[in-house]
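Possible race condition, two jobs.
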Amino acid sequence: MTGSLGGSLDVAQVVLYAFWIFFAGLIWYIRQEDRREGYPLEDDVTGKYSKDPWLFVPDKKTFVLPHGQGVKKVPDLQRDERPLNAKRTAKGPGYPLVPEGNPLLAGVGPGSWAERSDTPDLTAHGDARIVPMRTAEGFDIAEGETNPIGLTVIGCDGKAAGTVKDVWVDRAEHLIRYYEIEVEGGSASTLLPNNFVVIKGGNARGRAPHLYVHAITSGQFADVPARAKDETVTLLEEDKIAAYFGAGLLYALRDRQEAFL
Protein backbone atom coordinates (compact mmCIF):
# COMPACT_ATOMS: atom_id res chain seq x y z
CA MET A 1 0.00 0.00 0.00
CA THR A 2 1.40 3.39 -0.99
CA GLY A 3 2.68 5.41 1.98
CA SER A 4 2.64 2.43 4.32
CA LEU A 5 6.00 1.59 5.94
CA GLY A 6 4.81 -1.65 7.47
CA GLY A 7 3.31 -3.01 4.31
CA SER A 8 6.65 -3.01 2.43
CA LEU A 9 8.85 -4.03 5.37
CA ASP A 10 10.82 -7.25 4.81
CA VAL A 11 11.60 -8.65 8.28
CA ALA A 12 14.21 -11.11 7.00
CA GLN A 13 16.09 -8.32 5.26
CA VAL A 14 16.00 -6.12 8.36
CA VAL A 15 17.36 -9.00 10.46
CA LEU A 16 20.12 -9.57 7.89
CA TYR A 17 21.15 -5.90 7.96
CA ALA A 18 21.07 -5.90 11.76
CA PHE A 19 23.33 -8.94 11.78
CA TRP A 20 25.79 -7.26 9.41
CA ILE A 21 25.94 -4.17 11.60
CA PHE A 22 26.41 -6.29 14.74
CA PHE A 23 29.12 -8.42 13.11
CA ALA A 24 31.01 -5.37 11.85
CA GLY A 25 30.92 -3.91 15.37
CA LEU A 26 32.13 -7.19 16.84
CA ILE A 27 35.11 -7.32 14.46
CA TRP A 28 35.99 -3.71 15.31
CA TYR A 29 35.82 -4.48 19.05
CA ILE A 30 37.97 -7.62 18.76
CA ARG A 31 40.59 -5.85 16.63
CA GLN A 32 40.79 -3.17 19.30
CA GLU A 33 41.15 -5.63 22.19
CA ASP A 34 43.96 -7.60 20.52
CA ARG A 35 46.05 -4.40 20.48
CA ARG A 36 46.28 -4.00 24.22
CA GLU A 37 49.65 -5.79 24.22
CA GLY A 38 52.38 -6.22 21.63
CA TYR A 39 51.91 -2.88 19.89
CA PRO A 40 53.24 -0.84 18.21
CA LEU A 41 54.45 -3.30 15.59
CA GLU A 42 58.00 -2.85 14.31
CA ASP A 43 59.51 -3.53 10.92
CA ASP A 44 61.72 -6.59 11.44
CA VAL A 45 64.46 -5.19 9.17
CA THR A 46 64.60 -1.45 9.83
CA GLY A 47 63.14 -1.40 13.34
CA LYS A 48 60.83 1.45 12.38
CA TYR A 49 57.43 1.67 14.05
CA SER A 50 54.48 4.00 14.32
CA LYS A 51 54.95 6.23 17.35
CA ASP A 52 51.34 7.36 17.25
CA PRO A 53 49.15 4.52 15.95
CA TRP A 54 45.47 5.34 15.63
CA LEU A 55 43.61 2.66 13.70
CA PHE A 56 41.93 0.11 15.98
CA VAL A 57 43.87 1.30 19.06
CA PRO A 58 41.49 1.28 22.06
CA ASP A 59 41.32 3.68 24.97
CA LYS A 60 43.43 2.71 27.94
CA LYS A 61 41.83 0.24 30.32
CA THR A 62 42.84 0.19 33.98
CA PHE A 63 43.31 -3.17 35.70
CA VAL A 64 43.45 -3.13 39.49
CA LEU A 65 45.93 -5.82 40.52
CA PRO A 66 45.16 -7.96 43.60
CA HIS A 67 46.87 -7.88 46.98
CA GLY A 68 48.03 -4.27 46.74
CA GLN A 69 50.18 -4.73 43.64
CA GLY A 70 48.95 -1.45 42.16
CA VAL A 71 47.29 -0.86 38.81
CA LYS A 72 48.16 -1.62 35.20
CA LYS A 73 46.99 0.50 32.26
CA VAL A 74 46.99 -0.92 28.74
CA PRO A 75 47.76 -0.32 25.99
CA ASP A 76 50.90 1.50 27.09
CA LEU A 77 52.53 1.46 23.61
CA GLN A 78 55.93 0.73 25.12
CA ARG A 79 58.61 -0.86 22.94
CA ASP A 80 60.43 -4.04 23.91
CA GLU A 81 63.91 -2.74 24.71
CA ARG A 82 65.53 -6.10 25.45
CA PRO A 83 68.77 -6.68 23.49
CA LEU A 84 68.46 -9.15 20.64
CA ASN A 85 71.06 -11.88 21.06
CA ALA A 86 70.71 -13.08 17.48
CA LYS A 87 71.43 -12.12 13.90
CA ARG A 88 69.41 -12.52 10.72
CA THR A 89 70.41 -15.04 8.09
CA ALA A 90 69.60 -12.39 5.46
CA LYS A 91 68.44 -8.76 5.36
CA GLY A 92 65.05 -9.40 3.80
CA PRO A 93 61.91 -9.32 5.96
CA GLY A 94 60.81 -12.61 7.46
CA TYR A 95 64.20 -14.32 7.44
CA PRO A 96 64.96 -16.46 10.53
CA LEU A 97 67.20 -15.46 13.41
CA VAL A 98 70.36 -17.34 14.39
CA PRO A 99 71.20 -17.12 18.13
CA GLU A 100 74.50 -15.60 19.22
CA GLY A 101 76.39 -16.81 22.26
CA ASN A 102 74.65 -19.52 24.28
CA PRO A 103 71.59 -20.33 22.12
CA LEU A 104 69.67 -21.55 25.17
CA LEU A 105 69.90 -18.06 26.69
CA ALA A 106 69.44 -16.01 23.51
CA GLY A 107 65.69 -15.62 24.04
CA VAL A 108 64.71 -16.33 20.43
CA GLY A 109 62.73 -19.07 18.70
CA PRO A 110 61.66 -21.84 21.09
CA GLY A 111 63.65 -20.06 23.81
CA SER A 112 61.58 -16.88 23.70
CA TRP A 113 60.22 -15.56 26.97
CA ALA A 114 57.83 -12.79 27.95
CA GLU A 115 58.69 -9.80 30.12
CA ARG A 116 56.36 -10.84 32.94
CA SER A 117 56.25 -9.32 36.41
CA ASP A 118 59.32 -10.05 38.50
CA THR A 119 57.13 -11.04 41.46
CA PRO A 120 55.86 -14.47 42.56
CA ASP A 121 52.50 -15.78 41.37
CA LEU A 122 50.04 -15.56 44.26
CA THR A 123 47.14 -17.62 45.54
CA ALA A 124 43.72 -16.13 46.18
CA HIS A 125 44.88 -15.49 49.76
CA GLY A 126 47.97 -13.56 48.69
CA ASP A 127 50.55 -16.28 49.48
CA ALA A 128 53.27 -17.43 47.09
CA ARG A 129 51.64 -20.02 44.86
CA ILE A 130 54.65 -22.12 43.84
CA VAL A 131 56.95 -23.07 46.72
CA PRO A 132 59.23 -25.95 47.72
CA MET A 133 57.39 -28.76 49.47
CA ARG A 134 59.57 -28.26 52.54
CA THR A 135 57.73 -25.00 53.17
CA ALA A 136 54.27 -26.08 51.94
CA GLU A 137 52.34 -27.27 54.96
CA GLY A 138 50.04 -30.21 54.27
CA PHE A 139 51.76 -31.32 51.04
CA ASP A 140 53.50 -34.68 50.58
CA ILE A 141 54.09 -37.28 47.87
CA ALA A 142 51.09 -39.58 47.57
CA GLU A 143 51.50 -42.99 49.15
CA GLY A 144 52.51 -45.61 46.61
CA GLU A 145 53.95 -43.06 44.16
CA THR A 146 57.66 -42.69 43.40
CA ASN A 147 59.25 -40.07 45.62
CA PRO A 148 61.58 -38.14 43.31
CA ILE A 149 63.59 -36.57 46.13
CA GLY A 150 67.05 -38.07 46.08
CA LEU A 151 66.79 -39.46 42.54
CA THR A 152 69.45 -38.77 39.93
CA VAL A 153 68.68 -36.49 36.97
CA ILE A 154 69.92 -37.74 33.59
CA GLY A 155 70.35 -35.42 30.60
CA CYS A 156 69.79 -36.31 26.96
CA ASP A 157 73.46 -37.33 26.69
CA GLY A 158 72.83 -40.14 29.18
CA LYS A 159 75.00 -38.57 31.88
CA ALA A 160 74.07 -37.51 35.41
CA ALA A 161 73.34 -33.81 35.85
CA GLY A 162 72.57 -33.78 39.56
CA THR A 163 70.20 -34.95 42.27
CA VAL A 164 66.65 -33.94 43.15
CA LYS A 165 66.79 -31.87 46.32
CA ASP A 166 63.08 -31.09 46.62
CA VAL A 167 59.89 -30.71 44.60
CA TRP A 168 58.07 -27.41 44.16
CA VAL A 169 54.31 -27.61 44.41
CA ASP A 170 51.48 -25.42 43.19
CA ARG A 171 49.42 -24.64 46.27
CA ALA A 172 46.44 -23.56 44.15
CA GLU A 173 46.34 -26.54 41.76
CA HIS A 174 47.81 -29.18 44.15
CA LEU A 175 50.42 -30.59 41.77
CA ILE A 176 54.17 -30.63 41.17
CA ARG A 177 55.47 -27.75 39.03
CA TYR A 178 59.26 -28.04 39.40
CA TYR A 179 62.02 -30.26 40.68
CA GLU A 180 64.78 -28.52 42.58
CA ILE A 181 68.08 -29.93 41.34
CA GLU A 182 71.40 -29.93 43.15
CA VAL A 183 73.62 -29.67 40.08
CA GLU A 184 76.91 -31.54 40.23
CA GLY A 185 79.70 -29.03 40.70
CA GLY A 186 77.25 -26.13 41.02
CA SER A 187 77.08 -23.62 43.84
CA ALA A 188 73.28 -23.21 43.82
CA SER A 189 70.26 -25.38 43.09
CA THR A 190 68.23 -24.90 39.93
CA LEU A 191 64.64 -25.59 38.93
CA LEU A 192 63.58 -28.19 36.38
CA PRO A 193 60.01 -27.81 35.01
CA ASN A 194 57.87 -30.91 35.48
CA ASN A 195 56.77 -30.72 31.81
CA PHE A 196 60.27 -31.71 30.66
CA VAL A 197 60.66 -34.72 32.95
CA VAL A 198 60.03 -38.45 32.53
CA ILE A 199 60.40 -40.48 35.73
CA LYS A 200 61.85 -43.84 34.77
CA GLY A 201 61.92 -46.88 37.02
CA GLY A 202 64.81 -49.27 37.51
CA ASN A 203 65.62 -52.00 35.00
CA ALA A 204 67.28 -55.40 34.85
CA ARG A 205 70.58 -53.86 33.79
CA GLY A 206 70.97 -52.32 37.20
CA ARG A 207 69.90 -48.74 36.46
CA ALA A 208 68.10 -47.26 39.45
CA PRO A 209 64.96 -45.08 39.15
CA HIS A 210 65.84 -41.63 37.80
CA LEU A 211 64.52 -38.50 36.13
CA TYR A 212 65.22 -38.33 32.40
CA VAL A 213 65.34 -34.95 30.64
CA HIS A 214 65.36 -35.03 26.84
CA ALA A 215 65.55 -31.25 26.40
CA ILE A 216 69.17 -30.54 27.43
CA THR A 217 72.45 -32.30 28.18
CA SER A 218 73.81 -32.87 31.67
CA GLY A 219 76.41 -30.12 31.26
CA GLN A 220 73.82 -27.53 30.24
CA PHE A 221 72.07 -27.70 33.62
CA ALA A 222 74.77 -25.38 34.99
CA ASP A 223 73.44 -22.43 32.96
CA VAL A 224 69.73 -22.71 33.80
CA PRO A 225 68.58 -19.17 34.78
CA ALA A 226 68.94 -18.61 38.51
CA ARG A 227 66.41 -17.34 41.06
CA ALA A 228 66.86 -14.28 43.24
CA LYS A 229 65.49 -16.08 46.33
CA ASP A 230 65.84 -19.69 47.46
CA GLU A 231 62.24 -20.23 48.58
CA THR A 232 60.29 -18.47 45.82
CA VAL A 233 60.24 -18.11 42.04
CA THR A 234 58.88 -15.08 40.21
CA LEU A 235 56.73 -15.05 37.08
CA LEU A 236 59.65 -13.64 35.08
CA GLU A 237 62.03 -16.29 36.41
CA GLU A 238 59.51 -19.02 35.54
CA ASP A 239 59.30 -17.82 31.94
CA LYS A 240 63.10 -17.69 31.58
CA ILE A 241 63.55 -21.18 33.05
CA ALA A 242 60.88 -22.72 30.84
CA ALA A 243 62.34 -20.92 27.80
CA TYR A 244 65.80 -22.35 28.53
CA PHE A 245 64.52 -25.93 28.40
CA GLY A 246 62.31 -25.12 25.42
CA ALA A 247 65.32 -23.81 23.52
CA GLY A 248 67.15 -27.03 24.31
CA LEU A 249 64.67 -29.00 22.21
CA LEU A 250 66.21 -27.29 19.16
CA TYR A 251 69.62 -26.00 20.19
CA ALA A 252 70.95 -28.44 22.83
CA LEU A 253 72.49 -30.67 20.18
CA ARG A 254 73.77 -29.70 16.75
CA ASP A 255 71.90 -32.45 14.91
CA ARG A 256 68.56 -31.13 16.21
CA GLN A 257 68.95 -28.13 13.93
CA GLU A 258 69.49 -30.20 10.81
CA ALA A 259 66.91 -31.55 8.39
CA PHE A 260 65.70 -35.13 8.76
CA LEU A 261 66.41 -35.84 5.10
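Job #2 (started ~2 s after job #1):
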Amino acid sequence: MTSVAEPGRLVLRGRGIVPGRVEGEALVSHETISGWGGIDPATGTIVERRHELYGVCFTGKVLVFPGAKGSSGWSGFFQSTRLMGTAPLAMVFTHLTTKAALGAIVTRVPTVT
Protein backbone atom coordinates (compact mmCIF):
# COMPACT_ATOMS: atom_id res chain seq x y z
CA MET A 1 0.00 0.00 0.00
CA THR A 2 1.26 3.46 -0.80
CA SER A 3 0.10 6.77 0.53
CA VAL A 4 0.33 10.23 -0.94
CA ALA A 5 -0.03 13.30 1.25
CA GLU A 6 -1.99 16.15 -0.25
CA PRO A 7 -3.01 19.35 1.51
CA GLY A 8 -5.72 18.35 3.97
CA ARG A 9 -5.93 14.69 2.98
CA LEU A 10 -4.11 11.42 2.60
CA VAL A 11 -4.59 9.28 -0.50
CA LEU A 12 -4.16 5.52 0.05
CA ARG A 13 -3.50 3.09 -2.75
CA GLY A 14 -3.16 -0.63 -2.23
CA ARG A 15 -3.92 -4.05 -3.61
CA GLY A 16 -7.61 -4.03 -4.39
CA ILE A 17 -10.04 -6.49 -2.87
CA VAL A 18 -13.27 -4.71 -3.80
CA PRO A 19 -12.97 -1.93 -6.40
CA GLY A 20 -14.14 1.59 -5.78
CA ARG A 21 -13.09 5.06 -4.80
CA VAL A 22 -14.27 6.97 -1.75
CA GLU A 23 -13.38 9.92 0.40
CA GLY A 24 -14.09 9.94 4.09
CA GLU A 25 -12.91 10.15 7.65
CA ALA A 26 -10.63 7.30 8.71
CA LEU A 27 -11.40 5.24 11.80
CA VAL A 28 -8.19 3.45 12.76
CA SER A 29 -7.84 0.42 15.00
CA HIS A 30 -4.67 -1.42 15.91
CA GLU A 31 -6.76 -4.44 16.90
CA THR A 32 -8.70 -6.97 14.84
CA ILE A 33 -12.48 -6.83 15.11
CA SER A 34 -14.68 -9.79 15.94
CA GLY A 35 -17.62 -9.86 13.55
CA TRP A 36 -19.38 -12.62 15.48
CA GLY A 37 -20.62 -10.66 18.49
CA GLY A 38 -18.04 -7.87 18.21
CA ILE A 39 -20.19 -5.51 16.16
CA ASP A 40 -23.81 -4.42 16.24
CA PRO A 41 -24.89 -4.61 12.59
CA ALA A 42 -28.05 -2.60 13.28
CA THR A 43 -26.03 0.45 14.36
CA GLY A 44 -22.57 -0.15 12.87
CA THR A 45 -21.07 0.06 16.35
CA ILE A 46 -18.19 -1.95 17.80
CA VAL A 47 -19.57 -3.70 20.89
CA GLU A 48 -16.62 -5.94 21.73
CA ARG A 49 -16.08 -4.94 25.37
CA ARG A 50 -12.29 -4.99 25.47
CA HIS A 51 -11.76 -3.47 22.03
CA GLU A 52 -10.00 -0.10 21.83
CA LEU A 53 -12.94 1.28 19.78
CA TYR A 54 -15.69 -0.08 22.01
CA GLY A 55 -18.84 1.99 21.49
CA VAL A 56 -17.55 3.71 18.34
CA CYS A 57 -19.65 3.67 15.16
CA PHE A 58 -17.91 2.87 11.86
CA THR A 59 -20.87 3.71 9.61
CA GLY A 60 -19.85 6.06 6.81
CA LYS A 61 -16.17 5.98 7.78
CA VAL A 62 -13.11 4.36 6.22
CA LEU A 63 -12.33 1.51 8.60
CA VAL A 64 -8.57 0.89 8.84
CA PHE A 65 -7.69 -2.24 10.85
CA PRO A 66 -5.71 -5.48 10.83
CA GLY A 67 -8.74 -7.51 9.78
CA ALA A 68 -10.98 -10.26 11.05
CA LYS A 69 -10.93 -12.11 14.34
CA GLY A 70 -12.96 -15.18 15.21
CA SER A 71 -15.01 -17.53 13.11
CA SER A 72 -16.23 -17.29 9.54
CA GLY A 73 -19.38 -15.66 10.94
CA TRP A 74 -17.38 -12.44 10.63
CA SER A 75 -18.34 -12.05 6.99
CA GLY A 76 -22.04 -12.60 7.71
CA PHE A 77 -22.14 -9.86 10.31
CA PHE A 78 -20.39 -7.40 8.01
CA GLN A 79 -22.79 -8.36 5.20
CA SER A 80 -25.63 -7.49 7.58
CA THR A 81 -24.21 -3.98 7.95
CA ARG A 82 -24.52 -3.54 4.18
CA LEU A 83 -28.10 -4.77 4.19
CA MET A 84 -29.00 -2.48 7.11
CA GLY A 85 -27.19 0.56 5.70
CA THR A 86 -24.66 0.72 8.54
CA ALA A 87 -21.55 -0.52 6.70
CA PRO A 88 -18.27 1.34 6.69
CA LEU A 89 -17.69 3.60 3.68
CA ALA A 90 -14.60 1.53 2.82
CA MET A 91 -12.13 -0.82 4.51
CA VAL A 92 -8.34 -0.89 4.61
CA PHE A 93 -6.83 -4.11 5.94
CA THR A 94 -3.30 -3.91 7.28
CA HIS A 95 -3.17 -7.73 7.34
CA LEU A 96 -5.21 -9.74 4.84
CA THR A 97 -6.77 -13.11 5.67
CA THR A 98 -9.30 -15.14 3.69
CA LYS A 99 -11.89 -14.31 6.36
CA ALA A 100 -11.31 -10.58 5.95
CA ALA A 101 -11.36 -10.82 2.14
CA LEU A 102 -14.67 -12.71 2.22
CA GLY A 103 -16.13 -10.11 4.58
CA ALA A 104 -15.09 -7.32 2.22
CA ILE A 105 -16.58 -9.07 -0.79
CA VAL A 106 -19.98 -9.71 0.81
CA THR A 107 -20.05 -6.22 2.37
CA ARG A 108 -19.40 -4.76 -1.10
CA VAL A 109 -17.56 -1.67 0.06
CA PRO A 110 -14.29 -0.55 -1.55
CA THR A 111 -11.46 -2.43 0.16
CA VAL A 112 -7.68 -2.47 -0.17
CA THR A 113 -4.83 -4.13 1.63
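The longest strand covers residues 2-6.
Logs attached separately.
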